TrEMBL record:
Name this protein carries in UniProt: Electron transfer flavoprotein subunit alpha
Alphabetical UniProt keywords: Electron transport, FAD, Flavoprotein, Transport
One record GO biological process: fatty acid beta-oxidation using acyl-CoA dehydrogenase
Native source species: Pseudomonas fluorescens
Pfam family, one: ETF
Length: 309
């Protein structure tokens, strides 16, 4: 059994979600190969070769893969992946963009967002916004799987010494082209990789008031997230949204401020190790999942908390 893991990267560094995906592959068992599709991405391949448990790195370095357009990367993965028992990618925007196309091209069903590996062909995945867990058994010849990173502790980034092999196959479907990107820059940790997340909801009232959360987060070394209501109201950008239609996080500590705890928000954070809720409404559903709850006005509680940190 040999498993192909698609590396998540930006042509410079391997994204942490790759380490969680390799962890899922290790649970399946067998040889683990990592595919790096990009341009000028040899540093990524070298880093991938050091990941614990990886036995080979395939480097497809070509202008067609520079921005990892799914129309170009999917045929590459389908071509290479046909010889593998499993193809795994993190359930990130990229992974979710590429793997369904791969599954279609290989004419197999995709298994989405697994959170545990029961055996080489049986996996658990959340359904109904995480309210039920389905156990899925696949008979597909090649199992095409996206991995929910929070379900697997990452393997070590160092310790392996895999060989890097160049792949010459170049697929340029010619159906899409890269126009540009606007990336949010922040000195705070990335939301999905942060050990502590402080999130604000509609109770924050406006974007300016998020300064209270930024101040607390900076003292804690935390990332800042938000509910969809806060995002939809324009308080903060979309990439801060936590939940069913946002990012899935499972930090050591999640502090929900002025968030009611709608089921769609809980779907993105209820696996956090410790949940703290600050809400002035003692009936708010967030208190049902919180380990520690503070019934208080956030505009008093958050600055006080910040002073104590
Ligand atoms: C298909 C679908 C997908 C969705 N996806 C997501 C998703 O990914 N993420 C997400 O978050 N939501 C999502 N939602 C929306 C979700 O249903 C809720 O509407 C949303 O989570 C509510 O956000 P909120 O808790 O910030 O706002 P509210 O529900 O309005 O809660 C605000 C809370 O702030 C408290 N509050 C107000 N003022 C103060 C104060 N001064 N001090 C302390 N507490 C205060 C209130 O008591 C209240 O509990 C989705 C909905 C649908 C239908």
């Amino acid at each position: 059994m040999t498993i192909l893991v698609i590396a998540e990267h930006d042509n410079k560094v391997v994204a942490p979600a790759t380490l969680n995906t390799v962890a899922a592959a290790a649970k399946i068992g067998g040889d683990i190969h990592v595919l790096v599709a990009g341009q000028g991405a040899s540093a990524v391949a070298d880093a991938a070769a050091k990941i614990a448990g990886v036995s080979k790195v395939l480097l497809a370095d070509n202008a067609a893969y520079a921005h990892q357009l799914p129309e170009n990367v999917a045929p590459l993965v389908a071509e290479l992946g046909a010889g593998y028992s499993h193809i795994l990618a993190a359930a990130t925007s990229n992974g979710k963009n590429i793997l369904p196309r791969v599954a279609a091209q290989l004419d197999v069903d995709q298994i989405s967002e697994i959170i545990s590996v029961e055996s080489a062909d049986t996996f658990k995945r959340p359904i109904y916004a995480g309210n039920a867990i389905a156990t899925v058994q696949s008979t597909a010849a090649v199992k095409v799987i996206t991995v929910r990173a929070t379900g697997f502790d990452p393997v070590a980034a160092e310790g392996g010494s895999a060989a890097v092999e160049a792949v010459s196959a170049a697929h340029d479907a010619g159906t899409s082209s890269f126009v540009g990107e606007e990336l949010a820059k922040s000195d705070r940790p990335e939301l999905t990789a942060a050990k502590i997340v402080v999130s604000g909801g509609r109770g924050m009232q406006n974007g300016d008031n998020f300064k209270h959360l930024y101040a607390l987060a900076d003292k804690l070394g935390a990332a800042v997230g938000a509910s969809r209501a806060a995002v939809d109201a324009g308080f903060v950008p979309n990439d801060m949204q936590v939940g069913q239609t946002g990012k899935i996080v499972a930090p050591q500590l999640y502090i929900a401020v002025g968030i009611s705890g709608a089921i769609q928000h809980l779907a993105g954070m209820k696996d956090s190790k410790v949940i703290v809720a600050i809400n002035k409404d003692e009936e708010a559903p967030i208190f049902q999942v919180a380990d520690y709850g503070l019934v208080a006005d956030l505009f008093e509680a958050v600055p006080e908390l910040e002073k104590l940190v």
